[in-house]
Design goal:
11% of the residues lie in helices and 40% in strands. The chain has 231 residues and is mainly beta. The protein folds into two domains: 9-125, no CATH class; 145-225, no CATH class. The strands form three sheets. A seven-stranded antiparallel β-sheet has the order 1-7-6-5-2-3-4, covered by helices on one side. Strands 12-11-10-13-14-15 form a six-stranded antiparallel β-sheet, with helices on one face. A hairpin with a 5-residue loop joins strand 10 and strand 11. It is globular and about 50 Å long.
């Protein structure tokens, strides 16, 4: 029996002034694209030398999500289709296609994010399919909002628009999270991503080829020691 559940609560698109960022590239964000005769949410999964287009599992929330993203694109003066982000609070954020820094909030996703898996068959969820520990290889799409750990061991968000950038700090520093990141990246500045449900991932140099970076599981954020939910 499949007990995986999910829901989407759409809202009228409105301007978002909260935290928003994404790593450039097709595989680092969600997308709405034509799938058959309809617009549909999907992710791009780069696994080794293979790149797969993975549509979201069919459901009413998926239909509503695609519709809401397209409404957000239109509010921002763009045609249907394009990238979007789901942050650690489930908020669905739609950027302008013009690259001018404008973003719309279009609703909130709650629960699993399940997609078809053309590489292995079946489906996959953007959450660990089995218990993982710090440092385990992350073998699913690398999605999430980028955050940073400074040289001095300080977690921050780099807030950048078309004009200026600024460093934003959480109310308190989560030293357990910092230790978990440093267990994988002992030195230097580190970029990590935080995805839906508070999943934390980062990349480390591969043992066999130092020019190749592998995604690793870090853990999950402690919401009590994290940035507040913006509305």
């Amino acid at each position: 029996m499949n007990c995986v559940t999910w829901s989407f609560t759409p809202q009228r698109p409105r301007k978002w002034d909260g935290r928003y960022a994404r790593i450039p590239g097709e595989g680092t964000a969600f997308h709405v694209r034509r799938h058959g005769n309809t617009w549909w949410p999907l992710v791009i999964w780069a696994a080794g030398d293979e790149i797969a287009t993975c549509p979201m599992v069919a459901s009413s929330p998926a239909v509503d999500l695609a519709r809401a993203v397209n409404q957000g694109k239109r509010m921002l003066g763009a045609p249907d289709g394009g990238s979007f982000v789901i942050n650690e609070f489930g908020q669905v954020l739609v950027p302008s296609s013009a690259g001018d820094g404008r973003v719309a909030l279009v609703g909130e996703w709650d629960g699993a994010l399940e997609f078809t898996d053309p590489l292995h068959g079946g489906t996959f969820d953007l959450a660990p399919g089995k218990p993982l520990v710090n440092g385990d290889l992350w073998e699913r799409p690398y999605l999430g909002v980028p955050y940073h750990l400074s040289l001095r061991g300080e977690v921050y968000f780099w807030d950048e628009d078309a004009r200026v950038g600024a460093k934003r700090l959480p109310p308190v520093q989560d030293h357990e999270l910092i230790d978990a990141i440093r267990a994988l990246r002992p030195y230097g500045a580190v970029r990590f991503v935080v995805g839906s449900g508070g999943l934390v991932l980062t990349k480390v140099p591969a043992a066999s080829r130092w020019t190749v970076w592998e995604a690793r599981y870090v853990g999950r954020i402690n919401y009590a020691r994290w940035f507040g939910k913006e509305v």
